[in-house]
Specification:
- The protein has 81 residues and is of the alpha+beta class.
- It has one domain (2-80).
- 51% of the residues lie in helices and 14% in strands.
- The protein is built from three helices and three strands.
- The protein has helices at 2-8, 39-42, 51-80; strands at residues 11-13, 20-23, 29-32.
- It has a three-stranded antiparallel β-sheet.
- The chain is flat, with a radius of gyration of 15 Å.
Length: 81
């Protein structure tokens, strides 16, 4: 699936985590998760030993993706001028 996404034209976002984050040609950012991922636990809402770490990692990812989207938007506006 990763190869199909990247071959389609999406840009891989390099983050220090194992999941694929990518930016679609329209600028939207997405995360590819394994089908067997326990999403409530992953998002820090389930019980587990790493809930605080997962919440911190999720906040880091959201901030990085927001900054990337903002840069993409600003570059798009510059290119139109």
């Amino acid at each position: 699936m990763t190869r199909k996404i990247l071959d389609f034209g999406a840009r891989k976002i390099d983050l220090p985590i194992p999941d694929l984050y990518f930016q679609a040609p329209g600028g939207q950012c997405f995360q590819l998760l394994p089908i067997d991922r326990d999403l409530p636990y992953y998002k820090g809402t389930g019980d587990g030993p790493n809930v605080a770490n997962e919440k911190e990692a999720d906040a880091f990812k959201e901030k990085a993706l927001s900054e990337l989207a903002l840069r993409y938007h600003q570059n798009g506006l510059k290119n139109r001028a």
